[in-house]
Amino acid sequence: MTTDLLPPPGIFRQICSSRLDAFDGLVRALSEWASRAAVPSDDNLRDVILVLDELFSNIVIHGYRHDPDGDILVEATVEDDKVRVTLTDRAPLFNPLLVPEPDTTLPLEARPIGGLGLLFVRRTADRLEYWTSAPDAPGPVNRVRFTKALGAGSAPPANGLSPDR
Description:
By secondary structure, the protein is of the alpha+beta class. Helix 2 packs antiparallel against helix 3 (116-124). It has a single domain, classed as Histidine kinase-like ATPase, C-terminal domain (Heat Shock Protein 90, 2-Layer Sandwich), CATH 3.30.565.10. It has helices at residues 23-36, 43-63, 116-124; strands at 11-17, 71-79, 82-89, 127-131, 142-149, 160-161. It is built from three helices and six strands, in the order βααββαβββ. It has a six-stranded mixed beta sheet, covered by helices on one side.
């Protein structure tokens, strides 16, 4: 895991290798940033880390297929009592917003494997966005951003899922 050039104050930016064991260091760095940025340590920050864990793991396992040579750029900001986290990778293009929600009314033995992690992300994040370009990228990239409100006055998730840009 390496840290990119120093970002402006209030912005978290870290590049991680596409390895599951890189996640612990990412969480430590993000937690330190959150403390410096005066982000309240509440259940909503815990939810940010859980959503980040699911999306990061999906990129490593399904996107890069455990190829440790891939990079994942994680950026975070706090604006208007909301944390916005963006993950950028160069794995094969994949839009998580196009994955249908699993039918959780089916008996367990009748359900197909998979999809519950993205369901958790959709229900936990207040907003989820996906697009496939970056201004400084030489080719297509996956970019997924989620937003989570912070603090005791947080509104319940609106599930403001955003279509592909």
